[in-house]
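Example record

Each entry pairs one chain with its bound ligand, 4-fluoro-L-phenylalanine.
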Amino acid sequence: MTNKTSIQDSWASRWIFILAATGSAVGLGNIWKFPYITGENGGGAFVLVYLTCILLVGIPIMMAEVFIGRRARKNPINALSDVAEESDSTKKWGLIGVMGMLSGVLIFSFYSVVGGWVLHYIKVMLTGEMSGISSDEAGTAFGALLADPATLLGWHTLFSIMTVVVVAAGINKGIETATRIMMPALFVLLIILLGYAMTTGGFAQGWNFMFHFDFSKLTWNAALIALGHSFFTLSLGMGTIMAYGSYMTKKASIGKTVLTIGALDTLVALVAGLAIFPIIFSNGMDPAAGPGLMFISLPVAFGQMPFGQLFGTLFFVLVGVAAWTSAISLLEPTVAFLVERLKMKRVTASIGLGVIVWGLGIACLGSFNFMADVTFFGKNTFDFLDYITANIMLPLGGILIALFAGWIVKDKFAKDELETSDTIYKLWNFSMKFTAPIAVAVVLYFLLNPIK
Ligand code: PFF
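Structure tokens for the complex follow.
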């Protein structure tokens, strides 16, 4: 590109980029949401649709995000407008990045509330408060936490501070260091928990539940949820992966890199399912327990098992680490923009943004108590923000990025960045022009007009 006046840092290696992007992708979406939506939607067939969506829609869009970021080496807004300009189009494409920044801010506000619940559960597992608890008691305990704004605020504040500190420290000292420590820890914890789940006696049942493809159980609605989730779980549609891609050097192959990230994210989701369902089954609990699966059923299950206190604590530490690295990536695109475009100091930008998202988070945690009456379109603030970001803003951002990469960016530039064989390039290009936008448009349509 002609005007490459980048002021950015770079990742130390291709593997650091892979691990940082995996840190963003692997989060509450994998460990909390994926198992419970799989449980609610009947298991195997749902998993198969989800895997197809990751491969046909998620991976190609992720390739587009990475190459746009890397080509411009700027924050998402400037990256999109620079790449558009270079392809003789309007700089207004940068507006996708503006919507992305907004999505990040809004997602963070409820994400950090759930992150706070996780921190609270680390504490209660560690102190053994959950040992021998019944499911009614666990339900009551979770309800009591939600009803207590002061406790929620404390944990939400701690989680926000933890996130801001890393973002403020910058790409190399902050995000990269956190990645180097937390990602290996995450994989080790996951393997330990998987090993533990294998000893519980419910493993075969858990495995069958996830990999027995019974299509009679698959509803149209479940397929839509699978596609929607493939976006959220890969952190697509809001410029996060684009921002991370902008810190990547030209040497690495984008296709292979992105495939690795997609594979790791998928692996973690599957292993999380394989760690959770056996524990649920061996305790005779319901796999379709919904969002409470992790905060109600699991503590009960751990509370009844040998070494449950230790492994329960490890489990919530794992979720906490995953949520933390994702939360960091939610703030990064906006901080990059404030630093590059408005010339703010990184520390000032991170703290300023942190205060805003922390404040919005208070409205989210209030949804369960003092602000329970405040609703938007019939939903409380927490549910409303979750709904409009995951179901509308990310898919919309995804469609626009796909259309931009497929129809606007000149072939020669895309080819130059992707450096792949003709066949892969054609497949990718077809996905950008048709498969991804059409699939996402169908999802958006049906999410907004649910099938009764
Ligand atoms: N991918 C994260 C998860 O699965 O929990 C959530 C997320 C992070 C979404 C960052 C979007 C994003 F930009």
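Residues 14-448 form a domain with the Amino acid/polyamine transporter I fold (CATH 1.20.1740).
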